[in-house]
Write a structure and sequence with these properties.
By secondary structure, the protein is α/β, with parallel strands linked by helices. The chain has helices spanning 8-20, 34-50, 83-92, 111-116, 146-156, 165-177, 189-200, 205-213, 218-230, 247-252, 298-306, 323-336, and strands spanning 23-28, 54-59, 77-78, 95-99, 120-125, 136-139, 232-235, 240-245, 275-281, 286-292, 309-310, 314-319. 39% of the residues lie in helices and 18% in strands. α2 runs parallel beside α5 and α5 packs antiparallel against α6 (165-177). It starts with 7 loop residues before the first helix and ends in a 6-residue tail after the last helix. Bound molecules: guanosine-5'-monophosphate (5GP) and manganese (II) ion.
Length: 342
């Protein structure tokens, strides 16, 4: 038995939109991760199985190659590539689902067209402090992933029988990636009840693991070796580690989107390192990724110093300036926010 987490009134309102709507758009956050794609494609396959034939997933920008295998991934509309088409879809949509983000800012340039669209908007998300921009807001930060919420949403509408293998595969991918393959944020027993149901729907969880985690290029592995050997700075007295990679260094290893995925978690393998940061020089800004174990609030650190946010143990942000200045800001933050004190 799975407990009823999502408020009944919200389920019934959204169910009405599902029943009555003809055209649907599903939107998720910039630089979509496994949960963003898993929840969006999971809902996409469900709505299709329900009989809706005008369903689109729109993402603000490209997603990593290692998610291309996901069923339906080829049909995703990338706003950066096809802005006019995406805006037309949004404009014509009866219902718009906003998945895995809590604020229109998280879809960047898509925010304008999203807010301007007249369709009924439904938020399904697990980030703290959602902005009020959807008619129906299902915001449950205690959930390990938005994909798990999609499972619950489908079941609570009474449509478990329509949850097919494609939907199940996408939902599992999101649940797996947002919990580091069930190594954090994953102690709730119901997660495993849900996985058991997904396996009964025919998913191959071992195969999914390999598609996501074991498909890297040789140069990615070599970059990882370089990063660990040359570029990881440990501050033992602060229980902290910092990784930086410049654009030049990324170029040396033929960097492609997704290649540095997981790097930020690695320093946490060191005994007594409880806070890890990764600063990567992207085209327009320095991308910041933060991770912690225990009570250190990465999200507060990200919002205080890097105009970002996220979860207690996984957050991110941006810095506009040089990599050296970003490091200086990080070190200043460490002085004020000593992880040892948490
Ligand atoms: P990642 O390090 O994998 O890019 O991001 C980890 C988590 O931090 C994301 O799931 C998201 O919740 C949050 N996050 C990452 N970048 C940003 C950002 O620029 N702004 C905000 N508000 N949150 C971010
Ligand atoms: Mn998520």
């Amino acid at each position: 038995m799975i407990t009823k987490i999502i408020q009944e009134e919200l389920i019934q309102k959204a169910k009405k939109y599902v029943e009555k709507g003809d055209s649907f758009v599903i939107v998720t956050h910039v630089s979509p991760d496994g949960d963003a794609l898993g929840s969006s494609l999971g809902l996409y396959h469900f709505l299709t199985a329900y009989g809706k034939d005008n369903v689109s997933v729109i993402v603000p920008n490209a997603f990593p190659e290692f998610y291309r295998w996901m069923p339906g991934a080829k049909d995703i509309v990338v706003y950066e590539k096809y802005p006019d088409f995406a805006e037309q879809l949004l404009h014509e949509a009866d219902v718009i689902f906003c998945l895995d983000f809590n604020d229109p800012k998280r879809v960047e340039k898509l925010a304008g067209p999203l807010l301007a669209a007249d369709g009924r908007k439904v938020l399904i998300d697990h980030h703290l402090n959602p902005a009020d921009f959807c008619r129906v807001q299902m915001s449950y930060p205690e959930m390990s992933s938005t994909s798990e919420m999609i499972f619950r949403f489908i079941c609570r509408m009474g449509f478990f029988s329509l949850l097919n293998k494609e939907t199940a595969t996408c939902i599992y991918t999101g649940m797996m990636t947002d919990t580091g393959s069930f190594t954090y944020n994953s102690n709730k027993p119901e997660i495993y009840t849900i996985i058991s149901e997904l396996i009964k729907k025919g998913i191959d969880k071992d195969w999914i693991y390999r598609q996501v985690n074991q498909v890297y290029s040789e140069s990615r592995l070599r970059m990882m070796g370089y990063m660990l050997y040359e570029k990881m700075k440990v501050y033992p007295e602060l229980r902290t580690a910092l990784i930086t990679l410049s654009a030049e260094e990324l170029g040396r290893f033929h960097y492609r989107a997704g290649d540095t995925e997981g790097f930020v978690n690695m320093p946490l393998d060191i005994k007594d390192v409880e806070f890890s940061a990764f600063l990567r020089e992207d085209k327009d800004y320095i991308k910041i990724s933060l991770r912690s174990v225990g009570d250190f609030p990465c999200n507060t650190f990200a919002s205080t110093y890097f105009n970002g946010g996220g979860h207690k143990n996984a957050s991110g942000g941006e810095f506009h300036g040089t990599l050296a200045d970003a490091v200086a800001r990080f070190e200043q933050g460490l002085q004020e926010f000593n992880p040892k004190k948490f």
